[in-house]
Amino acid sequence: MAAILFGSISTVADTSELQRRAFNDAFKDHGLDWNWSQDDYREMLGANGGADRIDEYAKAVGDEVDAAAVHATKSEIFQRLVADSGLAPRPGVADVIDAAKAKGVKLGFVTTTSRANITALLSALEPHLGGDPFDLIVDSDAVDTPKPDAACYLRALEQLGVDAAKSVAIEDNAGGVKAATAAGVTCIAFPNENTEGADFGAAAETVNNLDQRRVVSLAVSEGFTE
């Protein structure tokens, strides 16, 4: 059996700018005079983990903050923004999901974000995706080490009962690509608005939209299915 594994929220719907806005709004709520520009934010996206990103920035500017508390506020704001934003799936996502289901290919959502963020996203996309299309969701609580460590992908493969050689990952950032390939999973890079231009050399290919025939053919034509 084959699997297609979506690697982050922004591989399904491009929420990258909503994420940045949520960070900046959270900084205001906590009395911080920080403002991450789009260029600032793009430079930070080489690594995964919002709380770590806040902590590292605080150290860089010489401020002491409760990074976990700021990040919790950011997540609450982000969930509200997602609910009110009129999000739609990224180009080709719905077609890939429909084609995978038609071919009996398993679908996984392998993220380093919280289950609450995932729930907010899927609720917002319900009219387009018909609710929760995934056979498995791996969130930030599922493993101890986040991407670029391979732990989340290894867990997904184990839970789905699928070999790495029978799986395809879709990732939007360099850390996610490293995590997928470290687990032995073929990876398609699908950059979001703020990760375009990143180094995706480890990916099998980099695309601006998902072609369901191409994505599913990686499972069907190359022997990834039973």
From TrEMBL:
UniProt-recorded name of the protein: HAD-IA family hydrolase
Residues forming coiled coils: none
Claim: DNA-binding is one of the keywords in the record: no
PANTHER family, per database record: CBBY-LIKE PROTEIN, XYLULOSE-1,5-BISPHOSPHATE (XUBP) PHOSPHATASE
Source organism per UniProt: [Mycobacterium] manitobense
Keywords from the named record: Hydrolase
Recorded superkingdom: Bacteria
Annotated GO MF terms: hydrolase activity
Zinc among keywords: no
